[in-house]
Amino acid sequence: MTAAWDIGVRIAVTGSLATDHLLTYPGRFAEQLLPDQLDRVSLSFLADDLRVRQGGVGANIAFGLGKVGLNPLLVGAAGQDYAEQAARLRALGVDTSGVHISPTRHTARFVCTTDRDQNQIATFYAGAMAEARTIDLAALLPRAGRFRLVHIGADDPEAMVRHTEACRTLGVPFAADPSQQLARLDTEQTRRLVAGAALLFSNAYEAALLRERTGWTEEEVLRQVGTWITTRGADGVTLARAGRPPTHVPAVPVAEVADPTGAGDAFRAGFLAGHAWGWPDDRSARLGCALAALALESAGTQEYEPTAHAYSLVST
């Protein structure tokens, strides 16, 4: 039997913790790909810029929530080399007591090359993230306080499923956000992650993949969740609920894209902040779009600063 959960205003964020190695290729990937040779690709791109940043979807979203004045609980697994980043997040008000430190593995690594058209080729090394499955969210949450929502982001797949089940056991609302891990999830795992979610996040490509993985139509997915939030890049965001026409929220114009990595995480931070404050979904999405624009204009996933202009976009 599901327990009654004492709803608070805090957000718990579960997801990967990583170090990002971000490279810039001045050409176009497409010019190097031969249509009749795609089964034997062997390419090397000479990058003209390298930036090493702290990242991971869990840390990126927690960073954004901390920047807007919330006190999120970060839940994930990292190596002993994560101490400096954990201290930086704590300085922003992020509670890192939910971070498991591996005694033997390095923090996960994300290596991403971006071309001149903002296309990306990336590789992710899990490292300590594999130990996220050892975290007992059902024991952690009651000790950490009262939560409005648990965001379940891309992480070790077994950990994601386990965290979802913990939320159901406790009766705490959760947001399902499998994103890039959809490629590793089977039908049963994906359905378990989605069913009963208060919020479901995806981009347009992931929305199609999610339907394929679950075997559900869009209408069947909507019957399983509260609000389905689909980001569409420069085309904005679609908010969908069962039995209602979808709502479109336009993107915030960007003067110049410095780095596309992490814009989706910044959007989620803004949306989740609005949700924590009890805002309607469309207003939360406007704040998400404002933070995503700031992230796009910043080099690195945890470098943007919320501005008065960003808040003015959601003042009505």
From TrEMBL:
Residues 33-307 form the Carbohydrate kinase PfkB domain. Pfam families: PfkB. Keywords: Kinase, Transferase. InterPro entries: Carboh/pur_kinase_PfkB_CS, PfkB_dom, Ribokinase-like. SUPFAM superfamilies: Ribokinase-like (SSF53613). Signal peptide: none annotated. One of its GO terms (molecular function) is kinase activity. This is Kinase. It comes from Streptomyces longispororuber.
